[in-house]
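#struct-pred
JK: can someone run the complex with iron/sulfur cluster? inputs below
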Amino acid sequence: MKGLILWQNIIVKESCGVFGVYAPGAPVSHMTFDGLFTLQHRGQESAGMAISDGETITVFKDMGLVSNVFDEHTLASLQGFLAIGHTRYSTTGSSTWRNAQPAYRPLGSAGFALGHNGNLTNTEVIAEEIGMLPGVVTTDSDILAELIAQKFAESNFDENSSNGLKDTLLEVLPKVEGAFSLVVMDAFRLVGIRDPNGLRPLCLGELVETGIDGKQRVVGWVLASESPALKVIGARFVREIEPGEMVVIDEGGSKSYRPFELSSVESKLCIFEFVYFARPDAVLYGKEVHGARRRMGELLAKEHPVEADMVMGVPDSGVPAAEGFAKYSGIPYGQGLVKNRYIGRTFIDPTPEARFNSVRRKLSPLVENITSKKLVVVDDSFVRGTTSKALVKMLKDSGAKEVHMRFSSPPFKWPCFYGIDIPSREELVAAHVPLEEIADLIGADSVGFLSLDQLVLAIDEPGSKFCDGCLTGIYPSKVPNDENVELAKLKS
Ligand code: SF4
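RT: done, structure tokens with the ligand placed:
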């Protein structure tokens, strides 16, 4: 079910950030705050954490940015040795307090809590299995929590048993389809799970202490959507959680399990994590994302060369690709736009006119830098064309002689079923307009898109595979019957 659509100025909207830490004796609530703060770009609508002191799980969540939801007083009151945290962007379920995560279910004296990044593709089947009434508005995390809670209850859940949560998850997870990077906790243990395609990222880190004997020992474990959230709390990156893997962390250390059919496991990380979603300092497939974005720009310059006076990037994620474009082409790099850093991400701009105008709210031209110049303007993605059109107009009104738009990914043509809020197919310009006509449509002097082959080459990880469903219409796993997609495929 589609949730409330809140339009976001420049790009498609990403989903959520998850974090978890198991660290007896450490300031766990402050660590979770720092981790969530680092993952803020993955979701700005609500933030929350669940923390356990071994007897009670306390959940604190609210609407707003991480720094608005938690203050020093709140963090000081959240005591424990184990916590999970979540920053939410609603792609399923509306943007309300009730849907903020972590989701919690009371079972026994402490219960369990869960945070989810991604989107399930078989929620209707699961909802029916757990007896949820048709038409009840809920979220994937709620459905998952309910499924786990029911299985716990059926299996005579013993919260003190080290196998209670683990065994229930091993039973439940094969029923779940779609994209899910999960952090789950009960009063004693932390669990990290990645779906069989690893569509959304999740990594593992460790907290290390040096003893008086000079030897290092592991004193805690951390899970995070992206590696910078490990770095910020002083944890060492260990590895990415593998697609189809479940890691259980408790006083005995960390243990790995494989809950899914082996035949369903195939790495297919969302390619847009590299293009736009992840932080530039995140490590995915063993590579720092910033380097991949620069290479996208280099290959874009090779594929779509143009004569110009200056290359500029659309802040923020267009900038590394613009640097790469400048390096390969030899055209000087310069700054042509200033971004308003304090802009919110939840403006409701329902009409094309409102969307067009709101570009000015977010970006402002550096007139002296662009006047009378032929510009190459590098952006990360092309969705409705409204932003590009407004941008080209703004730059030309500010004196640019020519504006050549270049995009470091192919244009969106299909919907995403895995948690990225891409507009409907009717609104995706490239699904209906031939690429040769897009320059005219947005008022640019020329347009060029990095091809899918070159995008994969830029990521430069031999043998790695990606989900590219929104570019090709070919999805790595079964997606819900979508009339829109079926009809479009028949026509194409
Ligand atoms: S369909 Fe597109 S946005 Fe969605 S997971 Fe796949 S590559 Fe990412």
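RT: quick notes.
The chain has two domains: 17-267, 289-491.
Residues 199, 270-272, 416, 418, 420, 467-470 surround iron/sulfur cluster (CB under 6 Å).
JK: thanks, will look after standup
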